[in-house]
Amino acid sequence: MDFNLPKNIENYRKQIRQFVDEHVLPLENDPKNFDEHESMLLPILDELRKLAKAKGLWALQVSKERGGGGLPVIGMAACYEEMGRSLYAPTVFNSHAPDDGNMMLLEKIGTLSQKDTWLQPMVDGKCWSAFAMTEPAPGSGSDPGGMMQTRAEKSGNQWKIYGRKWFISGAGIAEHFILVARTSDDPRKGLTAFLFHRDQPGWQLERRVPTMGPEEHGGHCELSFDGLTIDDENRLMEVGDGLKVTQIRLGTARLTHCMRWLGLSKRSLEIAQDYISERQAFDKKLSEHEGVQWMLGEAALEIHVGRLLTMHAAWKLDQGDYSRKEVSMAKVVVADTLHKVVDIAIQLNGARGYSKDTVLERIYRYARCARLVDGASEVHKMVLARNLAKENSQFWQWGVK
Asked: Taking the model in full, what pTM does it have?
């Protein structure tokens, strides 16, 4: 087993780390750089995005033919981790959620026409996107196949959409939307995925749902549909393939969250280490106290476990495996790790960590959503238990060349 990164990926990783250190982190402590939702102001972001593109660090998850970096998933794991050291850097590189997952999905399953019309403007940074699946109760959550209420009705060569979605990330500024709706009552083939543009009539953005934040650009929104008309040519894959589309998208997209969260975990520890190496108590530096060392050691250990799980899942995805249980394991562990590590960092910084003098309190608020997004941790554990019951001791088997 070779755990070395290929040289081209390591070069990307180093460049991204340097870019984040030089151009992004210095902006974080000035409130004037952010809007009321704690998102980076778009004029500042636009300048950073131009610089990232000029340096060849743009949309690394997309093929070179489309204008991206063409990295495999293991390359994304290494580079997204460096981007993830800042809450704001992934957007600078056009490798942020939900857009990166939408781009990877469209490149994988879209027709040539759909790629040219819907994908390319996203890759070029000309528009933002959203993925509309989650619904208010009793609608679609972790069980979209069985619970989705939003429906699509066929009318000639078009579809009419009726229903409601909520917590749709980025919808406040998105122009391109991927929508999943019910087209039949079949438990496995009852959903279909569609593409629509913000300017199409028949839908409305009801509200931007307030959250603990900080939020992605465009927030998390509630949408209503009352006859949105979508041409059949803007259907993704076949009728009834909506659940398949969702699974294709969420596999890698879930893992990219883990990659970025590992970066935030490492950043939190960096802030803590800087502070305890200078701060003194009881005649010696905090870093010299055994209890503090235990806290740091435990945090470092758990970050490394998360990195290994994430990289293993990335490697399996690169081999063409769906990597479902590996992604679920990484999602559960890394979400917990982020929350625990930033909590340790705040504790070691004392009142300073709880204040807004560092980004730790922002990371802490953000970290709480990690155990919820793209499937609650309990759902992923249930998936793992089902795999264990089905596979028994084969649950842990190694692949063989």
From this structure: 0.95
Note the residue count of the chain: 401
d(CA 126, CA 391) in angstroms, rounded, equals 46
Query: In 3D, which of 117, 230, 225, 111 has the Cα closest to residue 168?
Result: 225
Q: Of 229, 231, 304, 230, which is closest to residue 266 (Cα–Cα)?
A: 304
Q: How does pLDDT run across 357-388, given as a tens digit for each residue? A: 999 999 999 999 999 999 899 999 999 999 99
Question: Is residue 246 within a helix (H) or strand (E), and if so which, with residue range?
Answer: helix 242-276
The residue ranges of every structural domain in the chain are 7-97, 129-241, 243-396
CA distances from 264 to 65, 210, 362 (A): 31, 23, 11
Domain 243-396 class in CATH: mainly alpha
- CATH of the domain spanning 129-241: 2.40.110.10
- The per-residue DSSP string of 327-341 comes to HHHHHHHHHHHHHHH
State pLDDT tens for residues 14-30.
Answer: 999 999 999 999 999 89
Q: Three-class SS of residue 36?
A: coil
Query: Among 219, 202, 203, which residue's Cα sits nearest to residue 211?
Result: 219
pLDDT for 216? 87
Interacting residues of 180 by C-beta distance below 8 A, sequence separation 6+? 132, 133, 140, 144, 148, 150, 191, 192, 193, 194, 242, 245, 246
